[in-house]
Fold:
Amino acid sequence: MSSKLSQKKLSVLGAGKLGGILLRAYLKQGLFKASNVTASVKHEEKAAALAKELGVEATIDNRKAVEDADIILLGVRPNTVCCCFLAISGVRLWMCFLSSSPR
Structure:
Protein backbone atom coordinates (compact mmCIF):
# COMPACT_ATOMS: atom_id res chain seq x y z
CA MET A 1 0.00 0.00 0.00
CA SER A 2 2.78 2.45 0.80
CA SER A 3 4.15 2.28 -2.74
CA LYS A 4 0.75 3.28 -4.11
CA LEU A 5 0.49 6.20 -1.69
CA SER A 6 4.02 7.38 -2.40
CA GLN A 7 2.94 8.25 -5.94
CA LYS A 8 -0.05 10.28 -4.74
CA LYS A 9 0.07 14.02 -4.20
CA LEU A 10 -0.73 14.85 -0.59
CA SER A 11 -1.94 18.18 0.72
CA VAL A 12 -1.99 18.89 4.45
CA LEU A 13 -4.15 21.87 5.33
CA GLY A 14 -3.13 22.95 8.80
CA ALA A 15 0.33 21.43 9.17
CA GLY A 16 0.75 22.83 12.67
CA LYS A 17 0.76 20.60 15.73
CA LEU A 18 -1.47 17.65 14.81
CA GLY A 19 -1.12 17.96 11.04
CA GLY A 20 2.64 18.41 11.37
CA ILE A 21 3.01 15.33 13.56
CA LEU A 22 1.09 13.20 11.06
CA LEU A 23 2.99 14.66 8.10
CA ARG A 24 6.35 13.93 9.72
CA ALA A 25 5.27 10.37 10.50
CA TYR A 26 4.03 9.78 6.94
CA LEU A 27 7.32 11.05 5.50
CA LYS A 28 9.42 9.08 7.97
CA GLN A 29 7.54 5.88 7.12
CA GLY A 30 7.92 6.54 3.40
CA LEU A 31 4.16 6.66 2.82
CA PHE A 32 4.56 9.83 0.77
CA LYS A 33 7.50 11.43 -1.01
CA ALA A 34 8.35 14.94 0.18
CA SER A 35 8.34 16.08 -3.45
CA ASN A 36 4.65 15.07 -3.67
CA VAL A 37 3.56 16.94 -0.54
CA THR A 38 2.18 20.44 -0.12
CA ALA A 39 1.40 21.76 3.33
CA SER A 40 -0.41 24.91 4.40
CA VAL A 41 0.07 26.88 7.60
CA LYS A 42 -1.03 30.29 8.87
CA HIS A 43 2.25 32.20 8.72
CA GLU A 44 4.95 32.67 6.04
CA GLU A 45 7.72 32.09 8.58
CA LYS A 46 6.26 28.72 9.55
CA ALA A 47 5.84 27.80 5.87
CA ALA A 48 9.50 28.58 5.17
CA ALA A 49 10.65 26.60 8.21
CA LEU A 50 8.47 23.60 7.31
CA ALA A 51 9.70 23.58 3.72
CA LYS A 52 13.32 23.71 4.88
CA GLU A 53 12.87 21.03 7.55
CA LEU A 54 10.84 18.50 5.56
CA GLY A 55 11.60 19.32 1.93
CA VAL A 56 7.91 19.77 1.12
CA GLU A 57 6.23 22.66 -0.63
CA ALA A 58 4.70 24.90 2.03
CA THR A 59 2.30 27.80 1.62
CA ILE A 60 -0.17 29.98 3.48
CA ASP A 61 -2.66 29.63 0.61
CA ASN A 62 -5.08 26.71 1.12
CA ARG A 63 -6.38 26.90 -2.45
CA LYS A 64 -2.87 26.63 -3.84
CA ALA A 65 -2.11 23.73 -1.50
CA VAL A 66 -4.96 21.60 -2.87
CA GLU A 67 -4.67 22.43 -6.58
CA ASP A 68 -3.17 19.12 -7.69
CA ALA A 69 -3.79 17.03 -4.59
CA ASP A 70 -4.98 13.45 -4.78
CA ILE A 71 -5.39 13.27 -0.99
CA ILE A 72 -6.11 16.08 1.43
CA LEU A 73 -5.59 15.87 5.18
CA LEU A 74 -7.46 18.55 7.06
CA GLY A 75 -5.79 19.35 10.38
CA VAL A 76 -7.35 22.63 11.39
CA ARG A 77 -9.26 23.85 14.40
CA PRO A 78 -13.01 23.29 14.30
CA ASN A 79 -13.75 27.00 13.88
CA THR A 80 -11.84 27.09 10.57
CA VAL A 81 -13.21 23.92 8.99
CA CYS A 82 -15.82 25.69 6.87
CA CYS A 83 -13.24 27.97 5.24
CA CYS A 84 -11.02 25.02 4.45
CA PHE A 85 -13.82 22.94 2.98
CA LEU A 86 -14.32 25.64 0.34
CA ALA A 87 -10.79 24.97 -0.87
CA ILE A 88 -11.23 21.20 -1.26
CA SER A 89 -14.40 20.94 -3.31
CA GLY A 90 -14.14 18.45 -6.15
CA VAL A 91 -11.38 16.31 -4.66
CA ARG A 92 -12.05 12.59 -4.92
CA LEU A 93 -10.16 11.22 -1.92
CA TRP A 94 -9.67 12.98 1.39
CA MET A 95 -9.44 12.29 5.09
CA CYS A 96 -10.45 14.66 7.85
CA PHE A 97 -9.16 15.02 11.39
CA LEU A 98 -9.93 17.84 13.75
CA SER A 99 -8.05 19.39 16.59
CA SER A 100 -9.84 19.42 19.90
CA SER A 101 -8.18 22.69 20.87
CA PRO A 102 -10.79 25.15 22.18
CA ARG A 103 -9.11 28.19 20.58
Summary: Helices lie at 2-6, 17-28, 44-54, 62-66, 81-87.
